[in-house]
Every structure is written in structure tokens, then in C-alpha cells.
Amino acid sequence: MYAVIRTGGKQYRVAPGDVLKIEKVAHENGAVEFGEVLAVSGDAGSFEQSLEGAKVTGTVVGEGRGEKILVFKFKRKKQYKRMQGHRQSFTEVKINEVLVGGKSFKA
């Protein structure tokens, strides 16, 4: 049993019980709800036809910042060098439940 959700401009394949790092999202009391569900599969090879009212719920495990990425710009013979670092913020979420068509799949 798994679902495909979209958040932060990316798509993730999630199943109940999974822990994943996503782009930083706002949450209240540690609860997160994903309403943009793209696909749900209950059995291997088959997908749910209607996704109206489908949602995925989870709890926030933690927040942090990822590894530093260095951006280096260089133009030879022109004495031009620029270096910049970036650390992306993330939210770590544990998927609790997938709701679709009145059926509930829990961890």
C-alpha cells in the first residue's frame, strides 16, 4: 500500500510508517496533512480510480538543515571568483495514515 503525494514542488512515494525529509512546511502541534494526492495503490499493479477526498496524514519528527552545498563561479583570465554556500531547511515527517474513498490504511 502506497501513495504518491506532492509537496514543496517535489513528488514523494510514501507508505504508512515511512519517515522522509521534505521541504520545510508549516505545521500545528506536530501534525501535517497532505491534500494533494496524485495516486494511491492498495494492491500491487492497481490504482484507485477516484481520489476525491484523499489525504495523507503524518507527524513531525524533527526539523533541521541539510548538508552544505558550495556554489563556485569562476571566469579564467578575468580575476573573477565567487563562492557561496547554501543549506536547505527540511522537516522530517513520519507518515501515519492514508485515507482514500472511505478506506483507511494505517502504519
From TrEMBL:
Keyword RNA-binding applies = yes
Q: What's its job?
A: This protein binds to 23S rRNA in the presence of protein L20.
From the broadest rank down, the organism's phylogenetic lineage runs: Bacteria, Pseudomonadati, Acidobacteriota, Terriglobia, Terriglobales
Q: Name one GO molecular function term.
A: structural constituent of ribosome
Q: Which organism is it from?
A: Granulicella tundricola (strain ATCC BAA-1859 / DSM 23138 / MP5ACTX9)
Q: Does the keyword ATP-binding apply?
A: no
Single GO cellular component term: ribosome
Any one Gene Ontology BP term:
translation
Record note on quaternary structure: Part of the 50S ribosomal subunit. Contacts protein L20.
What is this protein called in UniProt? Large ribosomal subunit protein bL21
Identify the stretch annotated as signal peptide in this record.
Answer: none
The family classification in the record reads:
Belongs to the bacterial ribosomal protein bL21 family.
The protein's UniProt keywords, in alphabetical order, are: Ribonucleoprotein, Ribosomal protein, RNA-binding, rRNA-binding
Which Pfam family, any one of them, does this sequence belong to? Answer: Ribosomal_L21p
